[in-house]
Amino acid sequence: MVLASVPRRLSPGVGNSNDQTRRHNLSTVLTFLHHGGPQSRAQLTGLSALNRSTTGALVAELVELGLAYETEPADSGRVGRPSPIVHANGKVVAITVNPDIDAVTVGVVGLGGLLHHLVRRETDAVPTVGASIRIVQEVLDGMRDEIATEFRVAGVGIAVPGLVNSRDGVVALAPHLGWRDEPVAEPFAAALGFRAAVANDAALATVAESIFGAGRGVQDLVYLNGSASGIGGGVLAGGVMLRGSRGYAAELGHTLVNSSGIRCHCGKRGCLETEVNLGLLLQVLGRDSAGLDEVDALIAAVPDARPEIERQLDVLALAIGTFVSVFNPESIILGGFLGSLYEADPARLRASVNAASVVGLADPVRLERARLRSRLLTTGAAELVFADLLADPAGTVF
Amino acid sequence: MVLASVPRRLSPGVGNSNDQTRRHNLSTVLTFLHHGGPQSRAQLTGLSALNRSTTGALVAELVELGLAYETEPADSGRVGRPSPIVHANGKVVAITVNPDIDAVTVGVVGLGGLLHHLVRRETDAVPTVGASIRIVQEVLDGMRDEIATEFRVAGVGIAVPGLVNSRDGVVALAPHLGWRDEPVAEPFAAALGFRAAVANDAALATVAESIFGAGRGVQDLVYLNGSASGIGGGVLAGGVMLRGSRGYAAELGHTLVNSSGIRCHCGKRGCLETEVNLGLLLQVLGRDSAGLDEVDALIAAVPDARPEIERQLDVLALAIGTFVSVFNPESIILGGFLGSLYEADPARLRASVNAASVVGLADPVRLERARLRSRLLTTGAAELVFADLLADPAGTVF
DNA sequence: GGTAAAAAGTTACCACACACAACATATTGC
DNA sequence: GCAATATGTTGTGTGTGGTAACTTTTTACC
Fold it and tell me: Which residue of B has its CA nearest to A21?
């Protein structure tokens, strides 16, 4: 008999008791609904590998908790008694906040991923934490009735471009916003009266793409996001987000790609983000700045930009080559202007990645552009709020 | 209220029932014993967060299964009734096999990590699978009585330097042994009559150092091993071994360190293992080959080797710098000749790593030499066997 | 239209897991 | 020798999911 493989979990963990079993099973069912959309009770039974009667009880409890509801069976066309469809309750919502240099975007996202509202409020100056809170208050004020009568707010999720300590809700450094050692979650919670959480935007984007985007169903992926502020990313390894000992893992923009390169603002030389960046791209496109939506159009419109695009693609491939041998992912997902670069010449990136990887190792790796676009950060920030609810549906009060 | 942080597990998983709770708890207790050594029942109660009576029942079941035994309480010196000491049963053993270019090493390791026997049998030629099996049979024949009367063999664990598909027990490629698409676990199991498993040696070394060596208690670490055949490694992320979608993750020797470097046998340019390697080191040490134990002595004895040592350390630091921003580990553990290199000038590596990392990110990262030395692979291969037993103590029959 | 087969909901009952509490036991400290 | 403390032991209770029998609702076919 052949045994399994290299041990996976090395640390012992703690004991489980009966209530934890129930919690786990409730969590499992609700997570299926949230990630997989409405499903019949019979499907849930199959997916969870639980008994028919158990699934029934779990769904009943979720309905009781107001987290799910059942509707008439769909016409399956198959023989046998039809199974009622179970839905995650989209009226349970997360408020999402995404502060940017020139705007604050506020969203209302329902359980199950339904986007109720998405409002972008431009600002005169780079928003402070206080200003962001005021904008959110204004937006929520505008939908006061709806929130009071229709929605149940699970909390506020804030996506910040910078180094964030999610544990205590403090932004260590967000260079573009000028935030430094700034408590964020606490003041939001205090001002709005909801639970609040803050996290790095690239990490949340990874979560969003994993659940609802190009990474659906994939257990091992690398997400790379290119923005005006540099290259960030996130890694899903074995279905688990890579965090590192202090939560600063997946700083993928500082991967070495050019050992004789120029010095990066991080102190190293030849980092990915000094070689592949939006500034250099916009320069050859003849623009000072551009929204990410415009970049695609510009790339198509300016043939002279070709050499620079190809250079950036080739350098990007070097970093991806390292990621391939380090993570052996199933998929590499490119967001922001990296998605535009990819779109400009998918074949070239594919060829360069294969050349920059251990022979054969990159062949089965999918290269893809991120799918969620404008909904990316809102979806990710909502996951931040829903995480607690999904982990313990019965125990989370809000 | 401030919510936790970025969601970790993204996929829903499956449901749990009562027997799984029991299995999990048995596994938890046995794993504590195996990793943490003999402990009192009271300590186990504390660690597992289970009730006193439950711990009692679990230990009783483990004793019943022959996987643990209890001894008289130690003199704690504290007030209160003394608690009996529970031990993992070291008579439950794994047979370990480590084929090398010029020898096959066979070990007998007990649950709890006790090394009963370690035998190295030199070979005239590079051993084939068949030859390895014959050597193991000879060695086991020599201790036939002991095995029949004293030990209970849980299985055979084989550590192979090469690309291994642990799932089906086939070695895809072990260049130094000349094995290619070679079924290994199956023939071992058939010939010896025990369950058998095979895995990559560097991955097993990572496991061993994590549990019994320099990485004890650490949840995030990078292990880098340098041998004659190149640089391999393993990564523990959040207490879980990094595996990748096909099990080929952590090919750390092929991290880019020199973008104008020479071509590596893997097809890329400027890989870590083309720049940092034992061959180049031995050259300046004036030797054709040397056991790893000799390298330390040689380094101390040949001052002229200094420039090459420093060059290799500096290049190694570049790779570590990338690993620091990618994994944000708590500890980097260096084994094989990389351990010797480190030992030659720890301060230099520390300085180079700091310079090659995002400012401040490397400061809290420990750099350490691997601790297990000659026991490394035997311990790792034994873990391969014990993994199943630890995961399901009551369900594993052997 | 009626009947059989299939699939799934429902319900009552069971096995078993851990917690809890009361009690027994073994130690220290005074 | 007694109180305090910690722990083992035992019996009881709550809650978990599984099981099996029954019911309901559908399709397929005659």
Answer: B16
